Amino acid sequence: MTTITTRTVEYPADGLTMIGHLALPTGADRRPAVLVGPEGTGLSDVERRRADALAELGYVALAFDLHGGRYLDDPEEMLARCMPLLADPDRMRGIGHAALGVLRAEPRADPDRIAAVGYGTGGAIALELGRHGVNLRAIGTVNALTTGRPGEAARIRCPVWAGVGSEDPIMPPAQRDAFTAEMQTAGVDWRLAVYGGALHAFHHPPVGHPVRPGVGYHPQHAQRAWRDVVDLLAECLPVTEDLGHDPGKHAGPGH
């Protein structure tokens, strides 16, 4: 397994001091880089370990923050923070651009070879970066079939992969259809993976706090979704290391 180094990084965004998690592969050369966006609850050990796993594969990875260093384990508090955010593309883009700036400024990161992978709210932010015309090599999302302002998806300049559980009540079939119609109309190179029987946040190991109805972990599909994400990166942002397993399977709730 590749030796990695990690550190926290502080940066301003959305009127807060964000605390991200940067993971670097061994060596001193420039490497392709990946932004990793968390679910609406915020940055946790799950995303940190995914960033670490990507560094083990040879990527520079930044798991970015949503809530100024806080993890929102109260569903009502999480919704009160995330619903207005998800309704405001400019705020989402601001959070994404701030994290992207940190990643681009890292000397080990190749600023011309960056992908964005996000879960839930973090995935919506990744998509908004694409809709804003950011030069990304790939966008991968899970539980983030969000649609944008009319016509802006045409600015997406890279392949988009999206994963969703078939039984996700937060991303129902009508939302899937709206998302795929937007991507298709815009001429985006898109793919949608529907994981049979899976609920919302199926990729996220169980947590020790209340969750919204319709949320549930599906270990097998979590592994499959991770492999799909790594395959997307291997195709669009290749490195020579072997593909990995989903570190989230063994991660704690991260708070």
From TrEMBL:
In terms of domain of life, where is this protein from? Answer: Bacteria
GO MF: hydrolase activity
Residue stretches making up the Dienelactone hydrolase domain: 20-235
Question: What is a single Pfam family found in this protein's UniProt entry?
Answer: DLH
- Look up the coiled coil feature and give its residue ranges: none
Q: Which InterPro entries match?
A: AB_hydrolase_fold, Dienelactn_hydro, FrsA_esterase
Signal sequence coordinates? none
User: What keywords appear on the UniProt entry?
Assistant: Hydrolase
State the family named in the UniProt similarity comment for this chain: Belongs to the AB hydrolase superfamily.
Q: This chain belongs to which protein, by name? A: Dienelactone hydrolase family protein
